[in-house]
Amino acid sequence: MVTKLVRMSLLMLFLSVGTAYAQTDAAREKEREKYIQKQYQEYYDRIDTYISLLKVDDFKGAIIKQKIDEFYKKRNQIMMTEVSEYEKQPLVEQLKATHFSDVEELYTEETINSIQRFLTDNKAEIKKLQKTKKNN
Question: How far apart are CA 89 and CA 79, in angstroms?
Fold first, then answer.
């Protein structure tokens, strides 16, 4: 009788732990999806803020937005490859140097330099542009 009770208790314990694990796994996946969605929204908000602070018309702003988005997609592809870390960085730097070369003639050197700084540290570049806009 006691062994039957122990077996039954262990079975119930095992089933409750298995169910709890599945629930936490699903909850974890839901949290992960929520986090990724939030990160993408912040990413697009930063790009929109940056474009609005640049001194370019809507057409040129749309091109910059598209090129920045393409750049980050290509950069993420490089980062996800099985290449070692010290080999990835030069590839990203080369991408950064060449990605906007086809549209350089549309923009001033100051704008191209600003885009390069944005790709390196977008929050700092946004702050710099906001400070510049306040002073003007």
Answer: 9
